[in-house]
UniProtKB/TrEMBL annotation, chains A, B:
This is ROK family transcriptional regulator. Residues 6-51 form the HTH iclR-type domain. One of its GO terms (molecular function) is DNA binding. Belongs to the ROK (NagC/XylR) family. It comes from Streptomyces beijiangensis. GO terms for biological process: regulation of DNA-templated transcription.
């Protein structure tokens, strides 16, 4: 027990640093030199840690340089999946979150749930192969998906995919990847992704708005996803006054179903086509109702807007900002997502990494 | 430094227990017997701790019973103030939150800010005298007030008392009570009060709705007040669609300005007076719009409704519940405040006690 505790302490210190000497490890862990040496031997044998080759280009030192050790981020990997209505996305990272591979595949809204899951499995394997990883190396799988996800990871409700309700993604994906699976709502994980690697890195209370063929919201409070009792926090779109359920259809009145048509709209807006401008402003008119309600409810530090329509950038955000300022008590900063269509999958990776950290470092509480 | 640290550790353990023996203190603090004895001597000299008289009625023991020690909750007191539009309220408690005295006084909406503050000062002193306490014994003052309160405790905006904006209650009340002052928005502190001693004791994510001559909201997330970046979380009433700014006036159309008239309305509702029933249902119709928005935004565990109109109890809550169920995704429990008009002042006391605990126990971080 104590031995595992010491090994976990050494591993955590190494995980948070680049590389450390034995002396530095003794200082950081506050245990004896012999204990650290012992832990390092065990961790090296288990391939979690390795000695770093002395830097040949480094400054010359008198005598032999002290040995350095590092956490082997390549000792495993995590898989982040974004299982959406039109697209499934996979991101593979090492254990420190360095992206190793990315894949995506188109799916249709009408695809039955079992086939959507199968598509995610296939894509996950393909993403792993693409970066020379095997399923055996996967330490955790994180999944972001459309709909309400409860605390156990089950989808309980989905407005966009009615047959998605009842889906247990933990059960469906734990077996093929032989790893723990953690699941969250896509917009909530997008908020987490943007905080981890994107537009919201400096904020702890974050409202994320997905503005695409659907509109939805997710939030972080004190840098953690606030999911709510049923996982339904952010579902302001359920209120007809938010206009979130009707806004995308009005936009699609111009663009049709395809991605290309949305680009055509943005192009027309850039050329100051009056009808296109009116449509985008109308979308901002609709969008702002629910955004204002969420901002008034939470008073966040930052609003990040992602999703397909957010690719219009300031063409959408400027009308949104000016309308929002008129509805809320204090102006709030509104920025575009910097992760784009990877925000959900990267949030899912972050969730998976939290699970890995738990496995590696929470020895004490797991007994 | 180490001596103060040990004293703080001993004091904290005693604070959280009824009374403890020397042996129990050694076990709980994990320091030596001599160190605990030393700390107890110092704390007793400073009147924070005293030896408890052996319980004469207790079970007979062989030999002399072990000495017991307790934290002297009466070693100081805290003052909680609720500075509102129509009423100022004061609650005095000992250092463990036991209520020693309560006072209130009527004020008018037109009273200038300086006089409102003076009324709070006078009432605070009166409440202290009423329970034989002096201002010198006050360890902290907590204040809940109407309007937006920023992180520094300043009122930045007030819809109901326009001249209240800019008020610095910390500065105004620290001097007369010679104690640190902490300030928060009234509905946010009501949520805290209900969690501490009222209807929300079992919930950590709580939405509190004040339904009175004004309507407002406050919330706890993970048992802590979520104030937001500007202290403006919960201000959904700013959205015209919430109908919160117009609903009370419609109610007052029946009741007039006086408290008695509200009671007359409730009495008429109890007698199934059709016009009175319609007015209360209309109020529920209005109220539910903003409540639904807040519930959809946060997905709380519990909604607590307080304020003057909440005194109608289920006559208001039943129509509110049925309408709310139709607007949200998952039914949420809606209960009446159990603290009534003391919820804000008790939340302010809780805030003040947090400040006292910081003073007493956070020796380490204060150096």
């Amino acid at each position: 027990m104590l031995r595992r505790l010491n090994a976990a302490a050494v591993l955590r210190v190494l995980y948070e640093a680049q590389s450390l000497t034995l002396t530095e490890l003794v200082q950081s862990t506050a245990v004896t030199r012999a204990t650290v040496e012992n832990a390092l031997a065990g961790l090296t044998e288990q391939s979690w840690v390795e000695e770093v080759a002395p830097d040949a280009d480094g400054p010359r030192q008198v005598g032999r340089p002290a040995k350095r050790y590092r956490f082997r981020a390549e000792a495993g990997c995590v898989l982040g999946l974004d299982i959406g209505v039109h697209t499934v996305r996979a991101v593979v990272t090492d254990l420190k979150g360095e992206v190793l591979g990315v894949r995506h595949t188109a799916v249709t809204p009408g695809l039955p749930g079992a086939e959507r899951i199968a598509a995610a499995r296939v894509l996950g394997r393909r993403a792993l192969r693409g970066c020379d990883r095997t399923t055996a190396e996967v330490r955790a799988v994180g999944i972001g998906t459309t709909g309400i996800v409860d605390a156990s990871g089950k989808v309980t409700l989905s407005a966009l995919l009615p047959d998605w309700a009842g889906t247990d993604l933990c059960a469906a994906l734990a077996e093929p990847f032989d790893a723990p699976v953690v699941v969250g709502n896509d917009s909530k994980l997008a908020a987490l992704g943007e905080h981890w690697k994107g537009a919201a890195a400096a904020a702890r209370d974050v409202l994320y708005i997905h503005a695409g063929r659907g509109i939805s919201a997710g939030m972080l409070i004190d840098a953690k996803v606030h999911a709510g009792r049923r996982g339904a926090a952010g579902e302001i779109g359920n209120l007809p006054a938010s206009r979130w359920h009707t806004a995308p259809a009005r936009l699609l009145g111009w663009t049709g179903e395809g991605q290309g048509d949305a680009e055509a709209l943005f192009a027309a807006v850039r050329e100051r086509d009056p009808r296109a401008l009116r449509i985008l402003e109308q979308y901002a008119d609709d969008l702002v109702q629910g955004v204002a309600a969420m901002v008034l409810a939470l008073d966040p530090e930052l609003v990040v807007v992602g999703g397909g329509v957010a690719r219009a950038g300031d063409l959408l955000l400027d009308p949104l900002r000016s309308r929002l300022d008129g509805l809320v008590l204090f102006p709030v900063e509104v920025v575009a997502s910097t992760l784009g269509d990877r925000s959900v999958a990267l949030g899912a990776v972050r969730l998976a990494l939290d699970e890995v950290e738990k496995q590696l470092f929470e020895v004490a509480s797991r007994g």
